[in-house]
Amino acid sequence: MLDKANLKIGENSYEFPLIKGTEDEVAIDIKSLRGATNGVITIDPGFKNTGSCESAITFLDGEKGILRYRGYPIEQLAEKAVFLEVAYALIFGNLPTSEQLDKFHTDIKSKSVVDDDVKKILDAFPKTAHPMGILSSLTSALTAFNPSSVNVDSEEDMYRAIVKILGKFPVLVAWTMRKKQGLPLNYGSKSLGYVENIMKMMFEQPNEDYEINTIVKDALDKLLILHADHEQNCSTSTVRIVGSSHAGLFASLSAGISALWGPLHGGANQAVLEMLEAIKEDGGDTKKYMAKAKDKNDSFRLMGFGHRVYKNFDPRAKIIKKAADEVLNSLGVDDPILEIAKGLEKEALKDPYFVDRKLYPNVDFYSGIIYRAMGIPVEMFTVMFALGRLPGWIAQWKEMRLNKEPIGRPRQIYTGQTERSFTSIENR
Ligand code: CMC
After folding, report:
1. DSSP state of 361
2. By the 8 A CB rule, do 285 and 345 touch?
């Protein structure tokens, strides 16, 4: 078996070890490259060929459309598990026993109260503020209310920080939405399950009892599970790299939320719905928008299509498409944009532009349609993604700290001016 890679630069040859993962993925370990070659580095914008770490959390095979958390296939988790079990598995390595799950939930509930002064910060935001900006700020603000930094060498300390953020984050999510809607800020109820409680906090009206709709609850559970982790994506890499400077958990998460916001990442779910709405308003001509997406002089992209890693299909999209049908049927919602979405997908799947570039619907293509049927405003869609991704970010941050990874500090190839002399302002 080959276990070395050879590199030739001019007359000199160098040998680098290969690293193999448990799923037979192979990497060339170039840790010694600069030292051995007197300063030569690799360059890989967007890290398309670069592994940033070794990780035991999530496996995905983009060619085969496989996604597994801690070895458990996403299809089984989406079908059989609840979100909190999945969060536990991601963070601690295995699915919990019922005692472990009960204790985890009890500990989360015991830490779910948010300092009332956080409401003052929320009050200061204009009504027009985007919920992702608010959420990122409030998550960062939690550091001010919980100033002691996590001692990562103490399992107890680490656990306390984890249950704290899992308890408080849904409150921040619900408050962000309610504030924008002019609703009073509330707390859920300790008697409810984790996801049921999120729903109560988000949707309860001040003048009526809130009843959980089990169809909506099951769909939300599934959506959160499908978003819970996705190995070294943009926001997760952000969380790891911010945390690698030994910034605290909440500060690292706040940075991850900002990274998720962009329309090429989590912000795509909002962008998809806005795109589908625009197509509907424009008469539903999907062919016109397909042509725009293919036109290199047009900046328009088919949002919800394409993925850096999946080049066959996104297994999450398959599950979500089915769920969208089920949820809309059971709720009796007839949303014309579901038909537009299906029409676009059908055309794209037989169009050479999309086929050649291996562009398939991703997780965000159908999720917004479900969120809308649940009564969640479009601007909150990426916040819902963040709520789902929280356990993944936590697991990855924890792994990075426990593995004692060095501070993330890439190199560069400088292409600017070479040395020149300062000229005084009157002579420029
Ligand atoms: N519509 C039209 N053309 C596209 C699209 C699209 N959605 N996505 C990629 N392409 C084209 C792109 O123009 C390029 O063409 P060419 O080879 O002729 O220059 C080719 O396909 C490869 O694209 P790329 O941008 O180099 O691929 P990437 O791996 O850097 O980007 C992506 C992946 C997800 C950012 C991109 O596919 C995209 O912008 N999609 C739309 C936004 C979206 O849905 N994002 C959500 C991703 S899934 C949720 C998550 O995990 O974040």
Report:
1. B
2. no
> Which whole number is the average pLDDT over 19-41?
96
Task: Find out whether 271 and 299 touch, Cβ atoms under 8 Å.
Answer: no
Is the per-residue pLDDT at 194 higher than 70? yes
> Do 219 and 376 contact (CB within 8 A), yes or no?
no
Residue 324 CA to ligand 1 centre (angstroms)? 23
Distances from the Cα of 380 to the Cα of 5, 121, 153, 267, 383, angstroms: 47, 19, 36, 10, 5
Q: Which amino acid is at 110?
A: S
Task: Look up residue 69 and give its two tokens.
Answer: 């958390």
Nearest CA to ligand 1 atom 28: 308
Which residue in 387, 326, 321, 318 sits closest to 73, CA to CA? 318
> Which residues approach ligand 1 with their CB closer than 6 A?
46, 230, 233, 264-266, 268, 293, 301-308, 357, 359, 362-364
307 is catalytic: yes
Give bridge partners of residue 59 from the DSSP assignment. 68
Helix axes 214-227, 364-373, angle to 10 degrees: 150
Query: Confidence band (pLDDT; 50, 70, 90) for 3?
Result: confident
8 A C-beta contact, residue 162 and residue 90: no
pLDDT at 349 over 70: yes
**Rounded Cα–Cα distance for residues 312 and 61 (Å):** 10
Give the confidence band of 101 by pLDDT, cuts at 50, 70, 90.
very high
Q: What is the pLDDT of residue 355?
A: 94
pLDDT band at 141 (very low <50, low <70, confident <90, very high): very high
- Cβ pair 382, 260 in contact under 8 A: yes
Residue position matching structure tokens 């047009």: 298
Please tell me the distance from the alpha carbon of residue 244 to that of residue 211, in angstroms, as a whole number: 43
Inter-residue contact 217 to 194 (CB < 8 Å): no
Residue 236 is encoded by which pair of tokens? 């997760």
pLDDT at residue 150 in the model? 84
Tell me the angle at which helices 364-373 and 315-331 cross, rounded to the nearest 10 degrees.
20
Question: Would you state the pLDDT for residue 1?
Answer: 53
**Residue 1: how many CB atoms within 10 A of its CB?**
4
Annotated catalytic residue 364 = yes
CA 313–ligand 1 middle distance (angstroms): 14
Residue 210 and residue 62 in contact, taking contact as beta carbons nearer than 8 Å: no
The whole-angstrom separation of Cα 189 and Cα 37 is: 61
